[in-house]
Amino acid sequence: xxxxxxxxxxxxxxxxxVAFYACGPSGPETIKIGVNAPLTGDIPKxxxxxxxxxxxxxxxxxxxxxxxxxxxxYKVELVIEDNESKAESAVKANTKLITEDEVLAIxxxxxxxxxxxxxxxxxxxxxxxxxxxxxxxxxxKDRPFxxxxxxxxxxxxxVVANFVKDEFGFTKAAVxxxxxxxxxKGLAENFKDAWEKIGTMAAxxxxxxxxxxxxxxxxxxxxxxxxxxxxxQYYNEVALIVQQAHQLGWDKPIVGSDSWGSAExxxxxxxxCYGLFFSTHYAAAGATGATKEFIDRYKAKHGYxxxxxxxxxxxxxxxxxxxxxxxxxxxxxxxxxxKAVRDALAKIKKFEGITGNMDxxxxxxxVKCAVIVRISDTGEFEFYKSVCP
Amino acid sequence: xxxxxxxxxNITRLSKISIRTFVSQVPLLGWLLGALIAVALEHFVGTPxxxxxxxxxxLSLFGFLIILKKPFLIPSAVAYVLxxxxxxxxxxxxxxxxxxxxxxxxxxxxxxxxxxxxxxGLLYAVVHWWSDMSLxxxxxxxxxxxxxxxxxxxxxxxxxxxxxxCSHPGFLALGAYSASVFTVLLFxxxxxxxxxxxxKAIGPLFFPIALIIGGLVAAVGALAxxxxxxxxxxxxxxxxxxxxxxxxxxxxENLEAVGGPRGLSSQPNWAxxxxxxxxxxLAVWIINNFVRSTFGKALNAVRxxxxxxxxxxxxxxxxxxxxxxxxxxxxxxAGGLYAHVVRYVNPGDFDIKKLAEVLxxxxxxxxxxxxxxxxxxxxxxxxxxxxxxxxxxxxxxIPLLLILVxxxxxxxxxxxxxxxxxxxxxxxxxxx
Lengths: 389, 432
Hints:
Strand content of chain A: 15-25%
Number of helices of chain B: 18
CATH architecture of the largest domain in chain B: Orthogonal Bundle
Number of strands of chain B: 2
Strand order of the largest sheet of chain A: 8-7-9-10-11-15-16
Order of helices and strands of chain A: HEHEEHEHEEHEHEHEHEHEHHHEEEEE
Low-confidence stretches of chain B: none
Strand content of chain B: under 5%
CATH class of the largest domain in chain B: Mainly Alpha
Distance between the termini of chain B: 35 Å
Shape of chain B: globular
CATH architecture of the largest domain in chain A: 3-Layer(aba) Sandwich
Number of domains of chain A: 2
Largest sheet of chain B: 2 strands, antiparallel
Shape of chain A: elongated
Order of helices and strands of chain B: HHHHHHHHHHEHHHHEHHHH
Number of helices of chain A: 12
Largest sheet of chain A: 7 strands, mixed
Mean pLDDT of chain A: 87
Oligomer: heterodimer
């Protein structure tokens, strides 16, 4: 009896499988876009900004009924994956998005530590990927399928150097940076190269991640006769550096980079930061047009002014949308479509983003303007001037 | 009422017993055959079958990913797992049990190596077919096998020798960087090291050498922890080993030659699934032989009572040094593989987070046991992957699970159990 039961089960299974095998695959009715964001780990605020901006974009698309490609409207689905802000996890998340979820394009990862290996995977599997925030040149180098949404450090360094020279006419610079962190170190070197062409370096001081006492470096800088400090640090360190410098009697300017552009900077730093300058992607206060619209919507929904990550992610989403629309027709064969989207991405000219207009170079890096922002006397990021390449 | 509940408990007891006898009668060969047939089934009819059940495609990771995102698909996912995995494995294993028992017995007539190779070949075929379905599975499998190697190597020090060592991410970093420098310098046109010295085509032949170099560098680095361990034990050694980890991280961050904090990228893609599988098998085999040898017993002696061991003519210094260097060697090899799977290394990857991960694997799986290391590594990495859709809540569930394991099995799931290959592959006795 038992044997009979087993053979019935086997038989029915086999007939079922044979029946299913006849069913062919059906064409896609929806476009899937992957988002690879650090929702947990070291920088959850960055992941949150990414997620919120992406979801806002999806709302817009849904309101319009989908993305119009040629004469057909496609619904859009976002697949948001957490990369735990780890390289290994970012690679797995990208592979999952590409092979399991079969997304058409990927937005993210944000920091270079994850974007470099994840970009390698995307390029290997021929899926277009835009990293909105990664500044490491290796992310896009020799990878036709990988793009980025922000300008690179070799551009930002000279921008800051020239701005200081033109604005204040200083000749002696000091740099204070984190030697153990990729972004500050790269930018400090780029700034140094640019500055040494137009002035002299009075001090070039470093510290290590998670240091909180900078008095010895700042004393050296103070005594070196430098006329200003350039410190390309993240918001928590900026507050400490500026406050400690002021306690040591430093009253000359301190200049920063796009890593200052977080709402937390002013919250932590307070009055000490008022009147300081930094270069960044966009200025929230006094923004106009589409930028203001984005900021107002984001603020109304989530209660705070979006960081540059949010703005850059928004632009990256819209770049992908434009590229998909420019493709003209989706074949349903995901591999072909991905290639078509990549080609369309490389061809985008004069894209009007909320972080400025941009074109893409051969490497997949955008050519766009940097903004110099002044922290106003009420703690807002005010547009001061725009520097274009 | 009472009678019916008694009847029910009788039924559950009976079914428990019948499941136990059912399981105990099937040799490993039978299970492997069942798994092979299940993955073959999935390979050929998985996708259309999944579509017919209303699933978007063949389920990876046994459906966890999809049911956490779209709970309404739970019935289809359960049906899929049942019909593709559980039923075929169960039916094939049961119906072939008697033949497989005879076959396993016959195989034992030959040298044991022959039988082991057949088992491993079957196991590889299962893993290969399973991961052939999508590259995502392939990645998961490779990272899992690397995790097995790391956990095993840490188990030598933390489990068998009983020292709480925190330096493993440091060993991994040394191995990863040394192997990467070797391959990138010799075979890749790279920004840091310039043009390749040798043609890339012969590179894969040199990959084992790269891994061994990685292991050796890590082993030499381990001396920095092993020598202080002669005089310090317990908490103090833990601090020393932690310091070692930070020293390695800072060293690499300040070494401009290997990219500093920017990291080192463009490693060649040589760590494919067969390579990683082979390395993991070698690691299990050699480490298992090591811990079952006199040396392994010496480790246990040092752990349980160093003075007594010394009195019984165990050379404690040599024992400690060997254990640290041997563990570090395998960590270094695993690091080299890791670097070539991710194809990018950054000193920030080898920090306290990595340490927490490997320690969790060791203590979850079980101390002093090769089985435990394998179970811990596979369990934590599969769980981490399967709960991915939960994002933040994943970091509530996994630690909670660890706490529960620590409460109910304080030394881990499968601790203090010998990994006896012969016992594993021999035919099971059929009860009359």
